[in-house]
Amino acid sequence: MLAVRVAISNPEKAAARAAYLEDHKRHLRSGRLCIVQSGPILDEAGKGSGGVVVADVVSLEEMRRFSAEDPFVLHEVYSSISIYEWRPTIGARG
């Protein structure tokens, strides 16, 4: 199944975001989760306002565990995190 994590940044945690960015990237690239796509989401001014991870998982719990170990989650860089099952219907996978 595909799972999507949508995380919105906490603007008050910009210093923590900068401090843990490389650790966050290392976590995403660790190979512990089959990530299909990942990247920042930008506001209208082009400023990073969060991130999206799409992963091929066995269960949503797999995504929740991986997310809980993300340095950005551990250091509260995000103000909100939502995890969903995603069933694409249009595009290469639909």
UniProtKB/TrEMBL annotation:
Residues 9-87 form the YCII-related domain. Gene3D superfamilies: Dimeric alpha+beta barrel. InterPro entries: Dimeric_a/b-barrel (IPR011008), YCII (IPR005545). Belongs to the YciI family. This is YCII-related domain-containing protein.
